[in-house]
């Protein structure tokens, strides 16, 4: 069954937008939706002045249609021996802290064994990662989260405690563990509000009644780390977000408040999707690297 028209309306929310996406008249899209509803025997959308709102049946069919499309692509890939564009593309989405060092390290492990593969990596927020995976626009998501992610299948989850990150030689760098209060004399570089790191930091500050000299906010860990390397500023992050090599110019020290451990790394896929063997192998490599780091 061809779900192109249905998914175009589902994703865009209107016949006009779906027609523009498909380069056909909205009336033609409307006829295709009517035929599909007639064949199924159920309304898939509620027609409203501001657009088309999916019914419960429409939402369920959309999930099925996306899974069916991905599984058909995987089957064609196997039947054709992978000899066509896109057959061996792995589409990844990740949060910034995991994409800078860790995910390239995973690809370095996977690529020599599977040189015919191509990787497409997009960096975005945890919510955007989950939405991409849920819709079938990405094969695998890798995110930080402070709670179970809804609407996706979590193939693997492990704790990733937030630590204090500072330059080697910093006055606090030799300590085994730090109470957050001990950071008060030093300037801080933070990620924006809404990130898992910032959520837990703000929560502990409120719990302990602490205020800090906050000198930098940035959504790119590379800029934060470079600033920290050359000042006494302290940043935060998981050990996995630091360079995965022999570099020792940055030090990460555990924080004593247990709330800083209320964060996990999650590997996400589309629920109920039958994963092709090639993707399963990549996920095994990914999870193996996570276990090794932890």
UniProtKB/TrEMBL annotation:
Q: Does the keyword Chloroplast apply?
A: no
GO MF assignments: DNA binding; DNA-binding transcription factor activity
Record protein name field: LysR family transcriptional regulator
Q: Which organism is it from?
A: Pseudomonas karstica
Domain spans labelled HTH lysR-type: 1-55
Q: Which family does it belong to?
A: Belongs to the LysR transcriptional regulatory family.
Q: Which SUPFAM superfamilies match?
A: Periplasmic binding protein-like II, Winged helix' DNA-binding domain
Q: Which UniProt keywords apply?
A: DNA-binding, Transcription, Transcription regulation
